Amino acid sequence: MIQDLIAGGKESSAVNVEWAFSELLKHPQIFEKATKELDKVIGKERWVEEKDIPNLPFINAIMKETMRVHPSSPMLAPHFTREDSVIDGYDIPAGTRVLINTWTIGRDPTIWDTPEEFRPERFIGREIDVKGQDFELLPFGSGRRMCPGYTLGLKVIQLTLANLLHGFKWKLPDKMTPEELNMEEIFGLAIMRKIPLEAIGEPRLPAHVYGV
């Protein structure tokens, strides 16, 4: 069971971090704002720790916005209705298989303002969580069938993203501009980049922080 949790969360966590980095490299002003928050809260003498995450609202907003625009699971695990229901005038018999399209929910203009834009600021000051209680954002599902490893996945994504941003300066290779960065998706069990992300990192903290 533990192996299943680790294996199930590994790919989705990696996909989320890769998409977050892609969007940050696509939007340098957001990248700069995230770096400033890390420098202010963490400083430049240590790495980000789990206890720091609640004090990094913009990093958390980037994570949520990435999950909205690029959900790692575009279709949640299938559900079955337990009783006859009527939703928006449609009769749903008991035993019907139900698939939740989180990709469409995340881009619904009746729910989100300018849904095609990557704007982490939309989550600042809003009580929208990713733990299955706010139905406009369901990266891990909801209820009894939600992802059992979501707490592990959240910590992995938050700490990996924060430390990669905090510890290194990043740029696109071969003088590529942000406008040239390809953001095409491949649909499957997970939404992955059609072209894997390539970026060049350079240390931005004192050498002793890296153990040198």
What can you tell me about this protein's structure?
The longest helix has 25 residues, at 2-26. The chain has a single domain (2-73, 106-210), classed as Cytochrome p450, CATH 1.10.630.10. The chain has a two-stranded antiparallel sheet. A two-stranded antiparallel sheet has the order 2-3. The protein has five helices and eight strands. It is α+β, with helices and mostly antiparallel strands.
Short description:
By secondary structure, the chain is of the alpha+beta class. The protein has a single domain, classed as Cytochrome p450, CATH 1.10.630.10. Helices cover 35% and strands 10% of the residues.
**Gyration radius, in Å:** 19 Å
Q: Mind telling me which CATH architecture this is?
A: Orthogonal Bundle
CATH fold topology: Cytochrome p450
What sort of overall outline do the alpha carbons produce when their principal axes are compared?
Answer: globular
End-to-end distance, in Å?
38 Å
Low-confidence stretches: none
| Helix-strand sequence | HHHEEEEHHEEEE
Q: Average pLDDT value?
A: 88
**Total discrete domains:** 1
List the keywords.
two-stranded antiparallel ribbon, 212 residues, 8 strands, alpha+beta, Cytochrome p450, globular, single chain, 10% strand
Task: Map the helices and strands.
Blueprint: H1 2-26, H2 28-41, H3 57-69, E1 79-80, E2 85-87, E3 90-92, E4 97-98, H4 102-106, H5 150-167, E5 168-171, E6 185-186, E7 192-193, E8 200-203
